[in-house]
């Protein structure tokens, strides 16, 4: 009986360690982009891709883990645009919730906001996450999947210490 309890305790500790070990900050330098993903204990994540030429793209949301697969579920982050007759939601270009009053707000009329809204190229992009919204966890590294569903050996995220 004691051996069974000991074995179950060891198995529980091993599983608990495997499930919590994914939490942390990861980086991948790929070409002109610096990709980062922050995996938090509260099952949220924040993902960025930064470049001095292209600016920053980001998304955030929640994550779950099944075995060694990390699943990412992005969530949109909105601003409220107050029009004459109604309010509407738009994806925020920054990481702050704002109420934008038409004809009274610098943010609403900024050149970047106009370009983003016409071309749907917001810095926040809920589709801008690793391909297929999942990554594989191996030896304290995160790997993206390619279009064929196989591990992409070039897109490796290294855990920061």
Structure commentary:
The protein is of the alpha+beta class and 161 residues long. Helices cover 20% and strands 45% of the residues. It contains three helices and eleven strands. The strands form two sheets. The protein has an eight-stranded antiparallel barrel with strand order 1-2-3-4-5-9-10-11. A three-stranded mixed sheet has the order 7-6-8, with no helix packed on it. It is globular, with a radius of gyration of 20 Å. Residues 118-122 have low confidence and may be disordered.
Kindly list the characteristics that best describe this protein.
single chain; alpha+beta; eight-stranded antiparallel barrel; 11 strands; 45% strand
Element layout with pairings:
Blueprint: H1 2-20, E1 24-30, E2 33-39, E3 44-51, E4 55-66, E5 69-74, E6 78-82, E7 87-91, E8 99-101, H2 106-109, H3 111-119, E9 134-138, E10 141-145, E11 151-159
Parallel strand pairs: 6-8
Antiparallel strand pairs: 1-2, 1-11, 2-3, 3-4, 4-5, 5-9, 6-7, 9-10, 10-11
SSE string, helices as H and strands as E: HEEEEEEEEHHEEE
The whole-number mean of residue pLDDT values reads: 75
Number of helices: 3
Distance N to C terminus: 40 Å
Structural class: alpha+beta
Largest sheet: spatial strand order: 1-2-3-4-5-9-10-11
Main sheet, how many strands, which sense, barrel? 8 strands, antiparallel, barrel
User: How large is the radius of gyration?
Assistant: 20 Å
Give the proportion of residues in helices: 10-25%
Task: List segments where confidence is low: pLDDT < 50 over at least 5 consecutive residues.
Answer: 118-122
* Coarse morphology: globular
Portion in beta strands = 35-45%
The number of distinct β-strands equals 11
